[in-house]
Amino acid sequence: MKKNVFFININEKILILFLILFSLIINQYYGNKGIFPADSFAHFDSGYRVLLGEDPFKDYWVVSGPLLDYIQSILFYFFGVNWQSYILHASLFNVILTISTFLVLRNFNLKIYYSFFYSILFAVLAYPSSGTPFVDHHSTFFSLLGIYSLILGIKNEKKIYWILLPILLGLGFFSKQVPTAYVIISTILILIFFSIVQKKYYWVKYSFTSSILFICFLLIFGKVQEINFSSFLEQYIFYPLTIADQRFDNYQLTFRGVISHFIFIYISLIPLLYFNLKSIIKNKNYLKDKNFLYFLILITFTFSLIFHQILTNNQTFIFFLIPILFAFSNLDMNKLKLKSNNIILSLLLLTCLFATFKYHMRFNEGRKFHELNYANFKLSSNAIKIDKKLEGLKWITPQQKNDPNKEINQIREIKLHLLNDLRNKMLISNYSFFSVILNEKLFSPSRWYLSDGTDYPLRGNKHFTSYKKLLIGILKKNNISVIYIISPQDSSILYNYIDKGCFVEREISKILKSYELKNCNEINS
Length: 525
Description:
With 525 residues, this protein is mainly α. It has 21 helices and six strands. Strands 3-4-6-5 form a four-stranded mixed beta sheet, with no helix packed on it. The longest helix has 30 residues, at 2-31.
């Protein structure tokens, strides 16, 4: 008997080791396969800026993702400032999430090889769709860890899970406000229901204390970093609310957007719904059972993420829900002990495998998240041609998917020009890696330049004046002599905020323009 237990433990350790290596390697591989500059480099330069002593909210306008910049700066510090340590950020998250999924399933006594099966499919669908650190992924995955903590807190009634719950959701919120905000609301409702039906309130003291300590830490950290609290509120709370209002107003309901796009997620919910409805019919007290709570948690979490994807209208990345939902359906099926269990289980496993393969081919192999579907990846070129710090990245972008080397040569020309300009300069571009490869501060006032009002306030927005003040403050504080803008961004990024007469505009190349600052009252006042 002892030998058998020992054998199982050894197998579990081997499988965990395999999951660690697989979830790490698969993300490193796809993180190197093509890029969408605005998204892929979102935290590359900003992580480096934090390492150099700059801070979000204070030194550049931030609408989401301050936590990612700080995490990336730590990874740059320990692993070097380069592309591989950048995608390691996402890869480590993929590892943590995959192992957490495996351990949660094992905690529910799902058979080891089924737990392994669902976890490895999860690793395929989790972070590799992006491959690089991304705010929506981080917010979602911290929320998922919070959901795991909530489930284990209810199941095992250990205080550590109740302590971790608000911290994990707080980290999710400081990655991006949504979908974590939706998850927080649904979690509060679940906890109220849990307290009423189970008549258990012990969790309150642990979660409340943890929440207070987390908030105190944030306030102290902000004070030490000299981040103005009003700037944080405006950039991270009030300005994003204006974006949300605009999206609500412009949203158009479509069948594809709500139903067909998420069809396999809905399919994965069907067995979970069926098994729980069957349990409700069979047992009148099931609504007070912990298993019903797990069901509610998974359902509300799933629809929180679907709602977020529908509203943001970004590329879909939540297909990792499929193996999780099928895994918990597997657990519910085992509890019911149906005669047709083997047939149902085979259907669950095959459907889950098919869905994973489908979305793997579309989002990992096809890089649809980065708008590279239908790209010929054989045309990609090693980004070491740009700089050795980008070594390993197979350069191909949606802008030049048919001629990546043309884009690389244009970037090399820009790099050489900037190297030869020794003045204090600002660079505005979605190629947010020039600070790293030039090893200097370039004082970009925003992390992204999408020109649709989602990354910084445009004229007409009530926070327009605050962004203008920040931009002018950066120019004055750092004695900027010239501003460079790389196409497709254009002069409106400046002229909407500062009078055109304050600049001397020059065309350096087809995609690079310079704007030398002249003496003018708007900047010098």
